[in-house]
Amino acid sequence: MMRSNFDRQLRQLHQALTEMGAMCEQAIAASVSALLDGDKAGADTAMERERDIDRQEREVEALCMKLLLQQQPVAGDLRAISSALKMISDMERIGDQAADIAEITRHTGSRALPGHLHIREMARAAVKMVAGSVASFVESDLQMAKEVMIYDDVVDQLFDEVKEELTALIRSDSSSAGEALDWLMIAKYLERIGDHAVNIAEWVTYAITGSKSG
Predict the structure, then answer these.
(1) Does residue 197 contact residue 133 with C-beta atoms inside 8 Å?
(2) Is the pLDDT of residue 2 over 70?
(3) What separation, in Å, do the N-terminal and C-terminal C-alpha atoms of the chain show?
(4) Following CA atoms 136, 137, 140, 145 in sequence, which dihedral angle do they give, to the nearest 10 degrees?
(5) What is the pLDDT of residue 40?
(6) Are 162 and 123 in contact (CB under 8 A)?
(7) Among 116, 121, 144, which Cα is nearest to 200's?
(8) How many CA within 13 A on the CB side of residue 181?
(9) DSSP string covering 64-95
């Protein structure tokens, strides 16, 4: 009976994490849409999702505490719960960084700068990594977690390309420096989101194997 209650609460945890991951994906997509598509309502949406993510973090923490205190988790269960607690910290930071992007879009110009296509690709890649990292936990899929870690190279490469393009723009047109630096900061936030997705994947690896390196 106790184990069946634990399994039910563990399913609740998986569902809550999946919902939190979806909020992160929505926040990223909305903030980048505000930048690249002129969808100023997207900035508001990203801010709302960031607040939703904060609330979800507290709910997941409470559920994890309930699992730890009311049930009798074995070693593997303890790893899964402790990993979930680490994961939601990374997801909360992802929400913060999406909100930071949204805040920058409030005072950027509407013209497309060099690097805008790569920033859109970075956003898609970041969303893919966040979705994959959370799904790998819910499905206990070690290979999926490893693929998220490998895919981080794609985001890093795109960031390097954005940086080169914007640096060249600043050299050729100093009047664009302020706006170019805003776009570079946005690219940096997307790179950090990828890093947080890698952190999540590493905690999934720990939950499954007992080692963050697999």
Answers:
(1) yes
(2) no
(3) 33
(4) 40
(5) 82
(6) no
(7) 144
(8) 5
(9) HHHHHHHS---HHHHHHHHHHHHHHHHHHHHH
CB proximity list for 135: less than 8 A, separation 6 or greater: 18, 21, 141, 144
pLDDT at 196: 98
How far apart are the C-alpha atoms of 124 and 90, rounded to whole Å? 18
Alpha carbon distance 138, 14 (integer Å)? 6
Q: Which residue has the tokens 């007992």?
A: 210
The answer to whether the CB of 43 falls within 8 A of the CB of 34 is yes
**Own/partner long-range contacts of 36-42 (Cβ < 8 Å, ≥24 apart):** 36/112, 36/116, 36/119, 36/120, 38/110, 40/105, 40/106, 42/102, 42/105
- Give the model confidence (pLDDT) of 63-119 as tens digits: 999 998 877 778 888 999 999 999 999 999 999 999 999 999 888 765 667 777 899
Do residues 205 and 214 touch, judged by C-beta distance below 8 A? yes
- Please check whether residue 200 is in contact with residue 87, taking contact to mean a CB–CB distance below 8 angstroms: yes
The span from the CA of 81 to the CA of 203, in Å, is 10
